[in-house]
Amino acid sequence: MSDTGPMMRVSLEGHIDLRSVTGFLDRWPEGVQAGSHVLVDAGGVSACDSSFVALLIEWLRRARRAGATLEITRLPQQALALAQLYGVDAFLPLTPEPAKT
């Protein structure tokens, strides 16, 4: 985690799928800048499809473009399995333990 910028937390909950994912794009915090640290808590996600994995990749891109860091915590097992299936799990900055769902 960076000491130079603000810590921002985004908590996600509910179903994140093709129908709902666009609403979650707006949850990206304002003011992310170089040195910021964005913590995405996905522990409240009850169901998801590959759209959720795409959302996390988009947020990772946004963080990198801003010079910020991103960390994803409590990723549901379903999302982790999808990320592994698509071969992108190694790119996602996940904390060690996925949430049990």
TrEMBL record:
Annotated STAS domain residues: 1-101
CDD domains hit by this protein: STAS_anti-anti-sigma_factors
Gene3D superfamilies, per the entry: STAS domain (3.30.750.24)
Domain of life from the UniProt record: Bacteria
Pfam families: STAS_2
Protein's name in the database: STAS domain-containing protein
Lineage: Bacteria, Pseudomonadati, Pseudomonadota, Hydrogenophilia, Hydrogenophilales
